[in-house]
Amino acid sequence: MRWAFIGASNIASQWMVDAVRSVGDEVLAVVSRDAARAQAFADRHGIAHALTDEAGLQALGVQAVYISSTNEKHEASVLRAAGSGLHVLCEKPLATSLESAQRMVRACADAGVTLASNFHLRHNLAHQQMHDAVQSGALGTLVSVRLNHSVFLPQHLQGWRLTDKVAGGGVVLDIAVHNADSLAFILGEYPARVTALTSNSGMGQGLEDNAMSLWHFPSGVTAFTHQGFATPYGEKGIELLGTRATLKGVSMLDQGAPGTLTWMSKQGATTNALEDRNLYTQVLTHFHQALRGAPHHMADGVAGLKALAVALAILESARTGTTVAVDYGAPQDSTPQGDWQCAAVSHDLPAHKPLAVTLDGKAIVLYRQANGAPVAMDDRCPHRWSPLSDGRVEGDHIVCPQHGFQFCPRGHLVQAPGQASMPGVGSARVYPVLEKDQAIWIQLAAPDTAA
What whole-number percentage of the chain has pLDDT above 70? Predict the structure, then answer.
């Protein structure tokens, strides 16, 4: 894929050029309003074209844009890219207002192009193992979360982040959006309301450089979060506190450090170091998987919008001194219309493993075919009614745990081990299913009966 970089930023230079190239893609052009800055960036990274506007990108054969300009400029670039049929990876925050983010999400959906938010932290192993621990119930009932993301903002990043409110400066829009995405990925939900205080320790110039807030989630979980720009020696991490165990991640909120995870329970404490990986390469890998319609953990435009909504609610709570309900805006038009029901979040349905869900009292099994496409059928083998979700996936087929009967995506019995002919056990009922907006949707009212 051929990319154009809109914004000759520090993150683009330090991380994203190499990440794009690491997945076999090409950075074809860089755009900056400062011609000298664009040319210097292009020379430093061996990029063919240095431009001062975005108008000529299509003529160069660009297929996608990475946007890392200051935040108030994101919307115009995203709308222009969508209008040109270009896929978009945009830095956070997605925008500086909810209305702007809504227009961006809607424009990309209408144009049929992918919009992704560059939330890299969800791709580290600590986040993924925390997600798995919550979903599996290994912590017992999750009660609360503590998140500390207070840092010392290095000199070369201190410019507009400390002075320019219009550009989206301040610690909340810069860091709290990351934290909202991290907890949404780990917990599978966004907060319903927040209670916040902000302050200025002297680094920010008219903007907050320190923020603390309580987040209240629909499930009843509460989270304490801390964001800061002026603390060079704080411990950064996330701690999940459950009734059976606590899981604490340290140094898992950095760009380049893998961090550690410590399990604490009545058996004692165990700390595990985690494998290092380039998180931005992971972003690009999952971006490509999303383009192919394959399973992915990419943060899409809606995830960017919701993270922004949380940050805006924190600022409003601090301004008013009240608890504020998070306004996520109207539902996006890309939600499937009609009698489709959301059965699962995409990243909860891995390859090679069935997932049991219940909708309207019906037991359904979900699994993925070899190409990643989801299948939904009644969660019982038509032979002896064993739960198919207790079985396994082989290629495109799901295998009954009792006798090893294999059923294809249309619900037909296609293999019966040890038998010369197919026994007359009938077929499993299959339901229409689609994957959209990082969710698996099923249409129960119109069973796609195997025939």
Answer: 95
Instruction: Check residue 338 and give its pLDDT.
Output: 60
Mean pLDDT of 64-74: 96
Domain ranges of the chain: 2-117, 121-276+300-325, 341-442
CATH 2.10.109.10 fits 341-442, yes or no: no
Over range 353-359, report the average pLDDT: 92
**Whole-number mean pLDDT of the chain?**
91
What's the confidence (pLDDT) of residue 333? Answer: 47
Least confident piece of the model among 48-52, 305-309, 445-449? 445-449
Q: Other CB atoms closer than 10 Å to residue 291's CB: what's the count?
A: 17
Q: What is the CATH number of domain 121-276+300-325?
A: 3.30.360.10
Note the pLDDT of residue 265: 96
pTM attached to this predicted model? 0.76
Q: Give the strand order in the sheet containing 362-368.
A: 355-359, 362-368, 374-378, 430-431
pLDDT score recorded for residue 450: 40
Lowest mean pLDDT among 85-89, 162-166, 183-187, 259-263: 162-166
The CATH class for the domain spanning 2-117 reads: alpha beta
* Nearest CA among 192, 188, 181, 178 for reference residue 222: 192
Three-class SS of the chain:
CEEEEECCCHHHHHHHHHHHHHCCCEEEEEECCCHHHHHHHHHHHCCCEEECCCCCCHHHCCCEEEECCCHHHHHHHHHHHHHCCCEEEECCCCCCCHHHHHHHHHHHHHHCCCEEECCCHHHCHHHHHHHHHHHHCCCCCEEEEEEEEECECCHHHCHHHHHCCCCCCCHHHHHHHHHHHHHHHHHCCCCCEEEEEEECCCCCCCCCCEEEEEEECCCCCEEEEEEECECCCCCCEEEEEECCCEEEEECCCCCCCCCEEEEEECCEEEEEECCCCCHHHHHHHHHHHHHHCCCCCCCEHHHHHHHHHHHHHHHHHHHHCCCEECCCCCCCCCCCCCCCEEEEEHHHCCCCCCEEEEECCEEEEEEECCCCCEEEEECCCCCCCCCHHHCEEECCEEECCCCCCEECCCCCEEECCCCCCCCCCCCCCEECEEEECCEEEECCCCCCCCC
